[in-house]
Protein 1
Amino acid sequence: MNSFKKEKAILMFENGTFCEGFYEGKLIESGGEAIFNTAMNGYQELITDPSYNGQIVVMTYPMIGNYGINESDFESNRVWISGLVTKNYVNNFSHHGAVKSLAGFINSYGYPVISGVDTRHITISLRDGGQSNVYIAPKEAGMNYIKKKLDSLPKMEGLNLVSNVSSKKVYENKVDFPEFKVTVIDYGVKSNTIRCLNDIKADVTVVPHNFSKKEILDTEPDGILLSNGPGDPKTMAKEVETLKSLLGEKPVFGICLGHQLLSIALGFNTYKLKFGHHGINQPVKNLKTGKVEITSQNHGFCVDFSGNASKNYLKDTKLSHINLNDDTVEGIKNESLKAFSVQYHPESSPGPRDSRYLFSEFKELCLR
């Protein structure tokens, strides 16, 4: 327990309802789209995943913070979430590798952590009522002030966030005795994606999201990986046009937002899910093998595979994976273009490693 008195916080939703909790650490205001995450651990990887940019994360697992923050489990070099909501927050962390508290780390980037909230009630509300923007502020700020701040927040649908998270310059991660080269288009890439590519003997070059076809091909890749990232894929028309021009040039592997952008480039549509998939226990069926993979996921948009794609690509693009909870699209493949993608995170971190084989399949395509 903290030795000082905790200040009361209000978490307000678009419909005017609110929850009362307590600040852990600094009294910081923040707003964003509320999403619930069902993972029981891996909060350090979660809060440093660029895909969470613009989101207030509600953890369904009650005890959060108990193992603190260490020096190794980062997915980027900073915090990207807009705030963290917990039931029971543990300030006195205990782990041999911990160097700082979770709240202290998040606060250092200007975002709040609150506790004492019935997070499972919020989860049910979001599942029943759908996604909602929320705003966190001290109770003493007043309800009218908090509602005004909340009403000023933009909707996630129609929001382009990739420019916030993408690298502004090219960088490389090389290996000893490389067997092939991969260029990653950075829409918000996680560090473990690069590590997974290095593990299969790939030299990796990471380029900004707005690189042209020529600039991408000038890196001389054997394959191109489209990374995860935040925001609405429909706002990324320029990136989609670049992808269209690259199709057929090199093998392409898309992850999460990269999957959505590849699907749009192939002529399909995307739509906003009611409450999204956020956790590390989502069951996905591989339609080719019949095997079920337990996957790590974080997305609020989904691909519509109902047959509205352009005639040129429709006959060659196949559904490869589906979500067994709601039958949504989890993967597509176009053999003729050597292009495939998945909605979930095969690099995991956090999460199970059932889907790591996809990196090996990408390598096989690159070496053909």
Protein 2
Amino acid sequence: MINTILIFPIVACILVLLIKNRTFNTWMVNIYALLHFIFSIMLVWGKDSCLSIPYFAVDHTNSIFLLVLSLVYLMVAIYNTGYVKNIDVPDRRISHYSFMILIFVLSMTGTILSTDLGISWVLVEATTLSSAYLIYFNKTKHSIEAAWKYVFICSIGIAMAFVGIILLNVSSGDVNSLNFAQLYQHAASFDVSFLKLAFIFMLFGFGAKMGLAPVHFWLPDAHSEAPSPISALLSAALLNSAFLVIVRVFKIMEIADCTSYARLILMIMGFLSLFVATVFIYHIKNYKRMLAYSSIENMGILAIGLALGGVAYYAVVLHLIGHSLAKASFFLTSGNVLELFDSKRVKSVSGLVSADGKSGWLWIASFLAICAFPTSLLFISEFLIIKTMIADKHYILCAVFALLLMIILFGIGRVVIKMAFGELSEDKAKLIQNTKNKVSIWMYVPQFIMLILVFVLGIYIPECINQVIKLAAGAF
């Protein structure tokens, strides 16, 4: 099944390039999404499945990441079915678009399943190359700037990660392997001085892909300029893939007894990410950029939770699930808003509930989910992180954490309310009459499913899912 997940998109890419038909290309994306979802479930919960092949495996750490990627990709593929119909470009460009989506998802899947740090590094770079075209897809002045900034910053980041891998190899002495299992086995004997230096380089390198401040600069531009299905994949899947590599490297630091050092750096970057999101969200003018800064905020929360340890590990996994589903829903709904109002500027959108009730209420529900409104799964995760801070007597950090989250909540909330409930002008009403037919049923259903999951899981987590979450948290 792992072979199928990794080989099918390659075959599909060849077919997509040969058969430049919009419908066929969309079906290839959807078929891979369905296969990916079914096989991921079978790999995580199957009894007799082969869980590994050379260099790739499903384990306790990556199983939840694989499930989240698979579910988000399936929802994005469903949305994309309606989205592609409205794109007024030749079938040849749709063929390239579908090709790059398949390669992008393949790269993220490989990164998650990889058992080797070197392979992970290669595949993280592959995600950059494949998603750069998707960011540039609209071919506007701003999209090409965003794509170049993305490639430039992430290439610097991946180069730093490469230096970190070299330093890790130096610290490992006679252990001439980058296999995670072997690194864990011998980590206690690594040279601590080189290992600490390696961690800084790798954290900044892979942190650039994750969107952690101060190496986050590509993220607001890329997320705001990419087509909405791609923005959802970038925020809800790509950032998680980079975070998984950081989690695996952090585990090496734990085994090598460098935990305090690693946690300090993670805590600094986590709070810096929250601070950056707070400053920019409060003065936001572009609603897709607002969602991008929200992603930076939530990546910061994941870094803080990883730094805290203990119960916070469980909270990190919950937060990862909740953020991925809620943010994917938010970005997909922003695509509806863009189709309806033909503008990304906050001041150009008003009366969304009146213009299109389904999109309006999905917009509001996505906001409630991402701001940790009970019973959102994010409410549980953030509550557990705050509880851990208080239990560990980090009272000042807890106060700063709560204050920054409150300011971010206010910043996003005032934009969402203004867009949803403001007055719909006559000019905008006429525009909506011409654009409303662009938003098909396929562009509502995925958000509804994801939001239901976010709010239901905040009340009740089935034991089969809870077991996977516990095993993932225990493997951190």
